[in-house]
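$ ./design --mode recover --in tokens.txt
reading tokens...
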């Protein structure tokens, strides 16, 4: 079992930065790939970034060059550093864990509570 607790969301002006954190329980954290997803009002939940237990990273095209996902297996933490934020990035951001490698939200086994990111125009 994995429990995820997210933090770091908030209000930021366009062009600013936020760092999201996700703390995971358990001693098998390094066996899970971790993903960040987001869901804006009236839209489907979408993949943002993922990182394997070994550090392989993938991003959706819209955040490449602006967002950085990272993990610290020793601390059971995953992060999403978000720079050059745009109003388009406004959404609830979710941390998720899966045994595998996928961008499909339905495949992820464990989810955090979500944290709101609001970027002002």
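writing sequence...
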């Amino acid at each position: 079992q994995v429990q995820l607790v997210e933090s770091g969301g908030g209000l930021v002006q366009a062009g600013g930065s936020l760092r999201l954190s996700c703390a995971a329980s358990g001693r098998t954290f390094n066996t899970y790939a971790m993903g960040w997803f987001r869901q804006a009002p009236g839209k489907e939940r979408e993949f943002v970034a993922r990182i394997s237990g070994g550090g392989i990273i993938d991003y959706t095209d819209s955040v490449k060059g602006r967002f950085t996902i990272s993990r610290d297996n020793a601390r059971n933490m995953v992060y999403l550093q978000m720079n050059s934020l745009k109003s388009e990035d406004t959404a609830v951001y979710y941390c998720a864990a899966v045994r595998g490698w996928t961008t499909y939200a339905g495949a992820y086994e464990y989810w955090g509570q979500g944290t709101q990111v609001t970027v002002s125009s």
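exit 0
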